[in-house]
Amino acid sequence: MLNTLLSITVSVLFVLLCIIYPLGMLKFSDTAREKKRKSMDRSLRKIHKKMGIWIIVIALLHGIAEIKAGNLEGMASGKICFLLLILLFFSYGLKRFLKEKWMIVHRILAVITVIAVIIHIGGAL
């Protein structure tokens, strides 16, 4: 039960973190829809760092709960996903050194993380 709740929570957080970039690029000609999109984009960007920290915490708890439940089949891919989340977190620290180029590193890591998470979830189903 707890492991399912944690896996759903981490999945929702992951989707919210991932939609920020495409949401920012999307534009609507309809004024009402565009206003809604901008509001959602602004809200998600405002809490992006906090969600990033929370996803690491909840992913760790998810891994612990799965181990305690004896579900070990996704453990290797889960560890890779967790490591990639940690690298994404630390890539923010590169901002000071790389200026605008840190975002390129962050986005590349994000794409790799998305692929790893898809493999992880696909293997766990």
Question: Could you give a short description of this structure?
Answer:
The protein has seven helices and no strands. The protein has 125 residues and is mainly α.
List the helices and strands and how they pair.
Layout: H1 2-18, H2 20-25, H3 31-46, H4 48-69, H5 75-91, H6 95-98, H7 102-124
Helix pairs in contact: 1-4, 4-5, 5-7
Rg value: 16 Å
In percent, how much strand structure appears in the residues? under 5%
User: How much helical structure, as a percent, in the residues?
Assistant: over 70%
Number of DSSP strand runs: 0
Low-confidence stretches: none
Average of pLDDT: 92
The largest pleated sheet is described as: none
Oligomer: single chain
The span between the termini is 16 Å
Shape: globular
Order of helices and strands: HHHHHHH
Q: Would you give an account of this structure?
A:
The protein has 125 residues and is mainly α. The protein has one domain. Helices cover 84% and strands 0% of the residues. It has helices at 2-18, 20-25, 31-46, 48-69, 75-91, 95-98, 102-124. The relative contact order is 0.12.
